[in-house]
Amino acid sequence: MEENTFRVTFKGVRGSIPSPSSPASIQEKIIHALKQATPEDLKDDASVSSFVESLPAHVKGCYGGNSSCVLIEAGGHKLIFDAGTGIRDLGKRWMDCEFGRGEGEAHLFFSHTHWDHIMGIPFFIPLYVPGNQFTFYSAHENLKERLVGQQQFQYFPVPFSSLSASINFVDLGEYKEYSIGDIKVSWKEMYHPGKSFAYRLDFQGKSFVFATDAEYKQLGMDNLSPTIEFFKDADLLVFDSQYTFIEGMEKEDWGHSSTFIGVDIALEANVKRIAFYHHEPTYSDFKLADILQRTEKYLKVISPDSSLHMFHAQEGLTLDLLE
Question: 311 pairs with which residues across the strands?
Fold first, then answer.
């Protein structure tokens, strides 16, 4: 892997529970696409491919149904944030490289241990390959105990002790910040039932913030200033926006936020790009697209000259922050 990269890839973007596309939702997309097609769009294979490529992301594909997992490749290191079901596909792909030979090394950071953020661990194949080396990080002091509990016989047939890779646990509560090579890692406790931690990476003058599962109950500047400082000047902020603004107000203390609040905070923190994340499992891709459109209008009203770039996190999307 190149040393001079700071690459972000979304592997799982849904919240609470995995939500695969239903037959009805796929049929809705096909109908929507066909209604836009002209005879010229369908005259041969090339025109069909061109037409499909021109369709919006939520029509020609989907935002994704796997739960939380983001891969960072930076400075020759691999860092994973959360181990929801999105980590399963990552593991399958890694079996074709050094991890399949038992020569892989990666660092796995946990925001917290609610099921949707850890349930991919038993299905992450590189953990079963002797020789691979993993370091698990968390500011929760009993991470290993929690992961072992998930794989008790009552819940899963293979115990955590059967994982053959080398796994080292680091309690971040013992540090103020942590370095992996030239990557500086810092973290901040967020408001969420049972506590969740946001992470910030700084590398070669660029910064990435992973802030899933967080609710911003008090929106005054005095209360938000520590969060704004943590997000300050981030080149990419991954922001929990599970609910619409109204639904978020109705579900107080559930530990999640909305795109509108994300925009407000991103503007105050001078964030360059914000990826809305942890999509509500009951929201269709069409609803998510509508939420994004409404949020873009909101930004134009409150800050018409802003250069903030916003988008929905989508499985498979890759961004290089050094480009």
Answer: 275
Q: Which of 32-41, 111-120, 233-242 has the lowest mean pLDDT?
A: 32-41
Domains of the chain with bracketed CATH? 6-20+62-320 (3.60.15.10), 23-60 (no CATH)
For the entire predicted model, the pTM comes to 0.94
Indicate the DSSP class of residue 21.
P
* Placement of tokens 């873009």 in the chain: 296
- DSSP string of 108-176? EE-S---GGGTTTGGG-GGGGSTT-EEEEEESSTTHHHHHHHHTSTTT-SS-GGG--SEEEEEEGGG-S
Q: What is the pLDDT of residues 272-299, one digit of tens each?
A: 999 999 999 999 999 999 999 999 999 9
Nearest to 48 by CA among 32, 37, 35, 56: 37
For the beta carbon of residue 114, count every other beta carbon within 10 angstroms: 20
Structure tokens at 79: 């860092």
